[in-house]
Amino acid sequence: MIEFQAVTKRFPDGTTAVDELSLSVEEGTITVFVGPSGCGKTTSLRMVNRMVEPSSGTILVGGEDIRTPHPAVLRRGIGYVIQQAGLFPHRNLLDNIATVPLLSGWTRAKARARAGELLELVGLPAELGKRYPAQLSGGQQQRVGVARALAADPPVLLMDEPFSAVDPVVREGLQDELLRLQDELDKTVVFVTHDIDEAVRIGEKVAVFRTGGLLAQYGSPADVLRDPADDFVANFVGKDRGYRGLSFLDSTGLTLSQVPTVTIGAPVEATGSEWVLALNEQRQPRGWRSPGSAPSAALREGDLHAGGSLHGHGSSLRGALDAALSSPAGQGVVVDDTGAYLGVVSAETVLEVINRGSAG
Length: 360
Ligand SMILES: Nc1ncnc2c1ncn2[C@@H]1O[C@H](COP(=O)(O)OP(=O)(O)OP(=O)(O)O)[C@@H](O)[C@H]1O
What we know:
Layout: E1 2-10, E2 16-25, E3 30-34, H1 41-48, E4 56-61, E5 64-65, H2 71-76, E6 78-82, H3 93-97, H4 99-103, H5 108-121, H6 138-150, E7 156-160, H7 168-185, E8 188-193, H8 196-202, E9 205-210, E10 214-219, H9 221-226, H10 231-237, H11 241-245, E11 261-263, E12 276-279, E13 285-289, E14 310-312, H12 317-326, E15 331-335, E16 341-346, H13 347-356
Parallel strand pairs: 3-8, 3-9, 6-7, 7-8, 11-12, 14-15
Antiparallel strand pairs: 1-2, 1-4, 4-5, 9-10, 12-13, 15-16
The chain binds adenosine-5'-triphosphate.
Keywords: ATP-binding, Nucleotide-binding, Transport
Domain ABC transporter: 2-237
Organism: Tamaricihabitans halophyticus
């Protein structure tokens, strides 16, 4: 879908920002360009919509050389999202989102109606449409930035560090939202970040760049974590890459064990030497009773030890290991889609599955 053929960018001051980049971005995937600062990710991205002209080499989008159409026409087929959203401060959100449709000749009414739909698509209430960018949080502005880029329904979306300026929790929410949107929209997305965690979380393919604008490795996140091409990539992905690689192994093969359970609000006896898991009426875990707890006429949440993370059955082994390691009882609690208790796993059980090489 997007093809870089031996693309080089040399700036007039002699800096080689991108050096002979050859790479194919597959249609309908999220491909992440990742690497340390100054390694040419942004320059590579901006060459796709001709905000930067290559010094040599060819870029094809949908099989067509990007030099063929007029740059303005090319850019209408390519949504572009940047850090801090880059919204026009004096236009309300609907008008911000409607910018490209209006340029493409849509009527104002049609463009605004589309803008309203897009606000909802990115998870914002349509009533916000009359607000101005400064009246939104950073995370909300980023969502509007995505809506604006999607307005003319371009097949390609370029995203340059779109979530870097928001705090980690909001950032994770935005990443989830992008994955959800992508499920629905199937765009060809190129996403630039310097954060390897973000790259492996959202990328179906990851291109790791090294200083000097060289491509160090191009593959699936699992490949890059498990089998780094060289020391540079191994260092860049970090020492805990083995642990992070667990994100790509599913846990359906884990054998669950059972622990004694009690229900919040019900009378409970003293606990013996075991940890006892407390559930609510919907059988959702609420915490643990420690060994040697006194009897009570009605178990209250305040009497419990907070639980560790919960592991959704069948999701990644990383989540299973995290649940086990963060549990006060040393047993990770596994839940179904409704959050109801299914069983527990110990860290040893997870490690056995890892040692067998697969969970399947
Ligand atoms: N207009 C320019 N003139 C000269 N050099 C430039 C220009 N734009 C970028 N560069 C240089 O090209 C190299 C690559 O820059 P680029 O912005 O593509 O890197 P990056 O990987 O996106 O980095 P960052 O994550 O810091 O944005 C850097 O050395 C940068 O200083």
